[in-house]
Design brief:
The chain contains 6 helices and no strands. By secondary structure, the protein is mainly alpha-helical. The N and C termini lie close together (9 Å).
Length: 152
């Protein structure tokens, strides 16, 4: 498969699924841990809600998408990384509301608009990261660093 096709469509399907699924699991674990820590008044709750969750939701999609593009996971997988935090947030709020978890889902902001805002930020960062990863992969191919011998 040509390098440009591998970068756009993806050559590593298994790696792409692991990339998106692993990132989703990490974001979900951090968000659930933040909610649980807040419910039990753990001292780590502030660290999770003020440092870890914003890092994963707003800043992590760009480098994760860059790594995915460099590994030739394809554009769809890399952009899916940007949607992951919004989907995990929406599911967490919906489940928390249905189950009746205190301080989850009862805010003034509409779930839809907040989820769309998270998705826009995440996809924007993931697109930027994807572009950086594609540029790095193409530069590495030009320099012969880590090139795939089966593409001859």
């Amino acid at each position: 498969m040509a390098t440009s096709e591998a970068l756009l469509v993806g050559r590593e399907r298994d790696l792409a699924v692991k990339l998106v699924g692993g990132f989703a699991a990490l974001v979900a674990l951090a968000m659930v841990a933040a909610v649980v820590a807040d419910l039990v008044d753990a001292p780590v709750a502030a660290v999770l809600t003020e440092r870890v969750v914003p890092l994963l939701v707003f800043y992590a999609p760009a480098p994760v998408a860059a790594l995915g593009a460099y590994a030739r996971c394809g554009g769809p997988a890399c952009l899916a990384v940007g949607i992951v935090p919004a989907v995990v947030f929406a599911v967490l709020v919906a489940v928390g509301t249905l189950v009746g978890v205190p301080n989850v889902g009862g805010g003034d902001a509409l779930l839809g608009s907040l989820t769309v805002g998270f998705a826009l930020v995440g996809v924007s960062g993931a697109f930027l990261g994807y572009c950086v990863g594609v540029a790095a992969a193409m530069a590495a191919d030009l320099l012969g660093i880590g090139s795939d011998d089966s593409e001859a």
